[in-house]
Design brief:
Layout: H1 3-13, H2 19-36, E1 47-48, H3 57-72, H4 74-81, H5 99-110, E2 121-136, E3 139-154, E4 163-173, E5 190-194, H6 209-212, H7 219-226, H8 234-248, H9 255-265, E6 272-278, E7 284-290, E8 297-303, E9 310-317, H10 320-323, E10 330-342
Antiparallel strand pairs: 1-2, 2-3, 2-10, 3-4, 4-5, 6-7, 7-8, 8-9, 9-10
Length: 349
């Protein structure tokens, strides 16, 4: 048996691809990706994410779906891997220019701090407001859902080991829309559940204390960390700004790393101070933001006007046409009220 005979026998053992099946799988994947995009399609009955949350079922599902598709349809895998890898981009930190964040860094370096031990849990008390959209009975509905949250997160490890306690508050209307009856069904009720069924974040997006405490205390190196895996331009700046929020929301880091984070955030291109802002608990502070082109919404981080302690974050409409709400409308809001340490979380069945 020569090499050509061997090759022919090998080819006969491999079933030919059915292009109809491949295209159907490709269509299904594109549908999943459109549904997962935060600004497109807004899936029925789901929150419009204004910040990273612990429930990550969709992202895990998408990753698993892509893996199955790669195994089932070789053409997709070949296309994905055909592009040569780009060299990593080196991000050099420019001179920081946002005074609020520089003052927050000065305050963080002097403030008292918690010292959680391995095996313990950090407990975050907060109040939140998120946009919810639903389609029921042929009607499209929108409202602003409000919750009181208490979440126990492990000092070392992902959110799947955490516990979430929440209580539904009286909803608010989405600008220009009536509050639907479904929005008030659970008002006053409390629930306790696992914080997440899945946590598929990349290593550099981890927000547990053990990981955050190992990050650089040098602002320039923290700046590089914020841009991990990113290129250049407004899109990279917007993602780096979101990464800052992920390290502040229901997350706690030592004051040295926190100070470095604020100094690095102050150097992100396009970040500005927008003046006074009110968090979800009604506390007034001063906000800093980055307004990425195309989204119609800017993401603000709010700090106490005197102590420069981080209070919360909110998203504010900047383009009525893109956001489908009047300019100045607040579509998401949060307030971080307390951070403490617990030996263990409550039991959850």
């Amino acid at each position: 048996m020569n090499e050509m005979t061997e090759l022919e026998r090998f080819r006969s053992d491999v079933p030919e691809l059915d292009l109809t099946d491949v295209r159907a799988e490709e269509h299904r994947l594109l549908s999943v990706m459109r549904d997962a995009a935060p600004d497109a399609g807004r899936p029925t009955g789901q929150r419009v994410p204004g910040r990273p949350r612990r429930a990550m079922r969709l992202r895990i599902g998408l990753a698993a779906g892509l893996g199955v598709a790669a195994a089932a349809a070789g053409a997709i895998a070949v296309n994905a891997g055909g592009e040569p890898a780009s060299p990593p981009v080196v991000h050099t930190m420019p001179v920081a220019s946002v005074q609020v964040l520089k003052r927050a860094a000065d305050n963080a370096a002097k403030s008292p701090e918690l010292h959680p031990r391995p095996g313990q849990f950090l407990v975050f008390d907060s109040r939140t407001m998120d946009t919810v959209e639903s389609n029921s009975g042929g009607r499209h509905e929108r409202y602003l859902d409000r919750q009181e949250r208490k979440i126990w997160l492990p000092v070392d490890g992902d959110a799947t080991h955490g516990v979430l306690q929440s209580r539904t508050l009286e909803p608010k209307p989405y600008p220009g829309w009536p509050i639907p009856a479904v929005a008030r069904q659970n008002v006053g009720r409390s629930s306790m559940s696992k914080a997440a069924d899945f946590d598929d974040r990349a290593e550099h997006l981890r927000s547990d204390y053990a990981y955050l405490s190992r990050l650089p205390t040098d602002p320039a190196k923290m700046y590089e960390h914020l841009y991990t895996g990113l290129g250049t331009g407004p899109g990279a700046d917007a993602t780096a700004w979101q990464n800052v929020g992920g390290m502040l929301t229901e997350a706690y880091m030592p004051r040295a790393q926190r100070a470095a984070l604020f100094r690095a955030a102050a150097a992100i291109h396009g970040v500005t101070t927008v003046g006074r802002a009110v968090d979800a608990a009604g506390r007034t502070g001063v906000a800093v933001t980055l307004d990425p082109a195309g989204s119609g919404v800017r993401e603000e981080y709010i700090f106490d006007e005197k102590t420069y302690e981080f209070l919360g974050r909110r998203s504010v409409v900047t383009n009525a046409g893109q956001a489908e709400a009047p300019v100045g409308s607040v579509l998401t809001n949060s307030a971080q009220l307390k951070v403490s340490i617990a030996e263990r979380p409550p039991a959850v069945e």
